[in-house]
Specification:
Strand order of the largest sheet: 2-1-3-5-4
Radius of gyration: 14 Å
Largest sheet: 5 strands, parallel
Number of strands: 5
Distance between the termini: 28 Å
Number of helices: 6
Order of helices and strands: EHEHEHEHEHH
Strand content: 15-25%
Structural class: alpha/beta
């Protein structure tokens, strides 16, 4: 699995820790899209673009709360960013919503939580034809038609 990761300057250490965790646990091949730009939207949009294009399978974004990068990434057609706040939301982001980008807060979640959320997000898959399919189809259709 190819994973794009990025953050704002507030989350540099958290991003580096997650990269090490992903690599240590064989969860995927990670490409770092940076953290130097104080305008978190720039890195979030870049990660959103490479995931939406299919160049990368999943994305991970971190800022202070995870909210800003989530909002920014979701502006990209085909990017489906979910703010992960607990293990259940990490699981449902994939299983029920087919999210392709995980967003987390450096100030709102601890290191072990981020590791757990990342593992759950990267190891679960959306099941085509499940009861959530019509809901996912609805937002994908809207997304495809908005230009």
């Amino acid at each position: 699995m190819k994973i794009a990761i990025g953050c704002d300057p507030n989350a540099q250490k958290e991003k580096e820790d997650l990269i090490a965790y992903i690599q240590k646990n064989g969860l995927g091949e990670v490409t770092d899209f940076g953290s130097e730009d104080p305008i978190y939207a720039n890195v979030a949009i870049k990660v959103g673009e490479v995931v939406a294009s299919g160049e990368f399978d999943r994305g991970i974004l971190i800022c202070g709360t995870g909210l800003g990068v989530s909002i920014a990434a979701n502006k990209v057609n085909g990017a489906y960013a979910a703010l992960l706040t607990d293990a259940y939301s990490a699981e449902r982001a994939r299983l029920s919503n087919d999210a392709n980008i995980a967003c987390m807060g450096a100030f709102t979640t601890g290191a072990k939580e981020r590791e757990l959320f990342t593992k759950i997000f990267l190891t679960n898959e959306f099941v085509d034809g499940c009861s959530s399919q019509p809901k996912v189809d609805a937002f994908r259709t809207y997304d495809a038609n908005r230009g």
